[in-house]
User: Which sequence fits this backbone?
């Protein structure tokens, strides 16, 4: 899923400062799961903002609304009426959701309330970890299902580097060395030979380095 | 291993002489005088001098430019090049430029992560890794082509080096990685500083058993300790460094003003240990901001004069 | 004006907090919210209590290791800490929100906690600030 984190209240206050009627718009998919922008977070943020404005004796009108998925037009439409009642939308979706709203509602300022951080997994309740960079050319089969592009701090394809010690990354001792895990996993799979082969430089064209990407599914386009 | 001769360092090694290299960090500024001063301390006591490439991700004068200053001062440089800051386009271009300026040794590194440096807010590159860089250099030199396969006019012909850390984890995998570097085309290896001689010996034995030691020149790294505090700092804070407790105890066991002397003594003992190992072909003395001691160490180790080449 | 305190309490602490004999000892307006477990408390409930005019909010949870739902009181503690961060971000002084662990039926500890809260209220501005209150009344 896409993982995100709500911006600080101070930053959100600054972003919405020019507007007097703001729709706080949540998304019920990824950002809900990571506690950044679902219905509950919309309620909490709105309450916190009201308290903050009240404390400063300032007036603002905040409306709450959450759609199932902000990156799909079909769901966005449900928010039309609420959007038209307000001066601006504070979107708690990921960057894709924010831009989907911007595309659909040409004249409405859309503001981000969340920092989109990574594609990750729920490692345990309350802990999310980055697992994928979306490079467009998956080689997990070679690396025992552990991605060195996303999980090695230096994106090494022929790792590990000299800084791997006691299974942790030199950049942050709280981070596991991806290469240590790759080696352990391939050893247990009896596939360590995968690493004896030289791995050639990555072709980054399939990644974002090739410019904005598009996926076309002819069988679904009418 | 290539047997043509591109550099003085290569000639020393292929003659079977025990090579001595040192290290020079470029200044954080444009003062070439600082490099000249370091050159005067290192001249005639080593075969070549490594020039670091923004080491520990601190912005310094470029490695290429500093290498040229070394050449002008009569010292053969080993240009270090990290893949952290440049993509493959810039790396290849800089390699060609460096060779055109007379730089004939290169040490391929991935580089310290920028989060350790003076500008942790920078974006890193890591387009390719050090293994890929070695491969690219070998292809340039031996096939005369760049990474796209384009035939170069007068391709760069460099003596290709890489680093190895016999002390990092996972230990068993370190030899496999050495094998990969050799396959990729590396001619010489400079290792992380040796303090843990036992573990270094285990690593050499593994390399020997795998038939790797004979395929590459291994130059072992040493760093003289200045103080007990430095020993403890390196043991605890420097990634991939292995300083055993007995070394720290030795440094602590002498009065403060004798500590530097003790550090040099340890360094000399390590060098004589390394010279006994037939698969170690040289020593790389990394006297960090202590270049004035290199001459003394090389002399005391009985490694002077350096071989004169024709 | 009497301070306004909202108390979220676990039903295992008090079956019904409204019985608390605070009237004689304590000069404040109390709003009691019963929860099947303190772990059901959420950041938004706590914030809304402040929005509704509470000067302070107390969460009364079972002592550590005594939650019938194993970790409800630990969750409550975590949520209270989270909400305290939000209050500080807003500038509303997080000290006005506390969690106290209280053994089942320990009325005296509960009253102590309330009294302590009232006396600490003197240290920080009321919620909402007096100026806002006056504006609202006017």
Assistant:
């Amino acid at each position: 899923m896409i993982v995100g984190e709500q911006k600080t209240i101070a930053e959100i206050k600054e972003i919405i400062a020019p507007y007097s009627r703001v729709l706080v718009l949540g998304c019920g998919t990824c950002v809900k799961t990571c506690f950044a922008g679902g219905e509950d977070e919309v309620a909490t943020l709105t309450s916190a903002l009201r308290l903050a404005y009240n404390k400063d004796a300032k007036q603002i009108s905040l409306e709450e609304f959450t759609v199932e998925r902000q990156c799909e037009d079909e769901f966005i439409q449900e928010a039309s009426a609420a959007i038209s009642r307000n001066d601006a939308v504070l979107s708690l979706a990921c960057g894709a959701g924010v831009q989907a709203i911007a595309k659909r509602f040409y004249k409405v300022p859309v503001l981000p309330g969340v920092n989109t951080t990574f594609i990750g997994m729920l490692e345990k309740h309350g802990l999310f970890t980055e697992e994928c960079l979306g490079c467009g050319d998956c080689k997990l089969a070679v690396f025992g299902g552990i991605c060195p592009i996303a999980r090695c701090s230096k994106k090494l394809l022929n790792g590990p580097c000299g800084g791997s010690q006691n299974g942790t990354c030199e950049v942050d001792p709280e981070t596991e060395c991806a290469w240590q895990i790759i080696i352990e996993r391939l050893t247990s799979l009896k596939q360590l030979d995968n690493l004896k082969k030289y791995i050639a430089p990555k072709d980054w064209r399939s990644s974002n380095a090739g410019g904005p990407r598009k996926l076309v599914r002819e069988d679904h386009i009418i | 291993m290539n047997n043509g001769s591109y550099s003085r360092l290569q000639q020393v090694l292929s003659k079977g002489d025990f090579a001595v290299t040192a290290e020079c960090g470029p200044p954080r500024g444009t003062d070439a005088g600082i490099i000249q001063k370091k050159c005067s301390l290192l001249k005639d006591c080593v075969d070549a001098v490594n020039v670091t490439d923004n080491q520990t991700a601190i912005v310094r004068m470029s490695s290429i430019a500093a290498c040229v200053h070394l050449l002008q001062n009569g010292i053969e440089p080993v240009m270090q090049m990290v893949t952290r800051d440049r993509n493959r386009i810039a790396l290849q271009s800089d390699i060609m430029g460096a060779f055109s300026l007379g730089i004939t040794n290169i040490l391929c590194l991935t580089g310290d992560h920028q989060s350790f440096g003076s500008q942790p807010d920078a974006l890193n590159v890591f387009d390719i890794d050090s293994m890929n860089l070695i491969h690219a250099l070998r292809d340039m030199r031996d096939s005369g082509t760049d990474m796209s396969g384009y035939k170069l006019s007068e391709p760069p012909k460099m003596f290709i080096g890489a680093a190895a850390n016999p002390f990092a984890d996972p230990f068993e995998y370190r030899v496999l990685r050495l094998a990969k570097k050799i396959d990729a085309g590396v001619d010489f290896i400079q290792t992380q500083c040796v303090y843990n001689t036992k573990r270094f010996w285990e690593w050499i034995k593994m390399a020997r058993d795998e038939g790797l030691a004979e395929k590459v020149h291994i130059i072992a790294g040493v760093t003289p300790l200045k103080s007990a505090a430095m020993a403890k700092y390196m043991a605890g804070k420097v990634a991939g460094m292995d300083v055993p407790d007995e070394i720290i105890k030795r440094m602590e066991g002498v009065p403060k003003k004798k500590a530097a002397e003790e550090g040099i003594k340890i360094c000399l003992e390590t060098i004589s240990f390394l010279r006994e190992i037939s698969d170690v072909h040289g020593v790389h003395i990394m006297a960090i901001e202590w270049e004035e001691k290199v001459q003394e160490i090389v002399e005391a180790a009985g490694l002077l004069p350096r071989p004169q080449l024709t | 004006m009497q301070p306004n305190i909202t108390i979220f309490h676990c039903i295992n602490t008090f079956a019904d907090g409204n019985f608390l004999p605070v009237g004689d000892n304590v000069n404040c307006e109390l709003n009691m919210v019963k929860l099947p477990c303190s772990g059901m408390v959420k950041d938004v409930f706590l914030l809304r209590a402040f929005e509704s005019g509470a000067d302070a909010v107390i969460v009364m949870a079972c002592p550590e290791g005594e939650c019938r739902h194993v970790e409800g009181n630990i969750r409550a503690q975590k949520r209270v800490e989270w909400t305290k961060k939000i209050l500080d971000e807003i500038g509303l002084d997080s000290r006005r929100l506390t969690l106290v662990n209280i053994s089942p039926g320990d009325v005296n500890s509960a009253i102590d906690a309330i009294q302590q809260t009232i006396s600490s209220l003197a240290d920080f501005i009321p919620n909402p600030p007096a100026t806002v209150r006056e504006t609202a009344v006017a």
Notes: The radius of gyration of chain A is 21 Å. The longest strand of chain A covers residues 114-124. Chain A touches chain B through 31 residues (CB under 8 Å).
